[in-house]
Predict the 3D structure of the following.
Amino acid sequence: MSLQDFLSTLDGLEEEASAAFETACDADTLEAARVRFLGQKSGALRDVQKRMGSIDKADRKTAGMRLNQFKSNVQEALENAKTRLGGDDSTGADPTFDPSLPGRRPSIGHIHPVTQTMTHLMEIMGRMGFEAAEGPEVEDPWHNFVALNIPEDHPARDPLDNFYLATAATGTNDRNVEGSQLLRSQTSTVQIRVMEDKQPPIRVISLGRVYRPDAPDATHFPMFHQMEGLLVDKNVTMANLKTVLRVFATNYLGDDVEIRFRPSFFPFTEPSVEVDFFWNGSWVEFGGAGMVDPAVFEAVGYDPEVYSGFAFGLGVERLCMRRHGITDIRDLYSGDLRFLQQF
Ligand code: FA5
């Protein structure tokens, strides 16, 4: 046999043996492969070794070296396969390990239902051309009250109805008219921040947390989320407001939803309304809305003779609860995974 033939036989054999060991799916298959390639009596290695004698003397050294290399490579592939299958104590593998058992699924977190709701709401409003706007959760009284036409003596500013900061800093913000910051009680603050920043036309929504010292019950929580909408342009009317809210409601709750406005009062809108949706057999209040009060336009430097606009603020949890049939807002914040994993 020529050296060349000998070497290429070994190459092919090595490849075959390694593949057989690597793909063996249990100890029996592996043992069968071991016998086939390395068996003392009739294994392929034995056949090859026999042929060493027919190689030219001058080439025997090279052939021998390759044969040794073949043995150690194939032996190593065998050991690896044994370790993988865990069946051989000599490999140090745990004999109680059963590779055929299904793996353990790692527990992966998922997005909170309220956050999912906010993403959904943003998507719906985005399709109507509303851009997202943001504002801080720690606010000054100018943005939470004054610019929204809520004067000093208004009950909405009562310390019992707001979370004022104990460390209220003075002089850090020239808008901080009374030096007493608070956790914002409504996302209407963002209306002011947007209008201070930009000229009309304006079409924004803002989704975020708000805080009120309300006692928790099935529909109230001291921290909750609102979706604020603001549209300012020339000739904006209540009809535009109603249309936008109807399109929003049908997109979020379905085609059979109805919308109702009830007269109400907010210092920053005139006229003001409460917004109810009729869905699944009952009227439910989701938020407040109205035409932006001229006093608000003056506070941000817009000319109320030129511009008009509407604003609305809806409770995100109430929307989420209604859509998913959740009856108690406290479930959303209980941290109970049995509840949260359903969404
Ligand atoms: C407001 O907060 C006004 N800023 C809404 C507004 C915006 C009016 C723009 C006009 C123009 P109100 O206090 O009604 O309004 O709250 C709006 C909604 O927030 C409520 O309808 C309700 O859905 C939700 N909400 C209020 N308090 C809580 C609470 N403690 N827990 C859960 N949701 C609440």
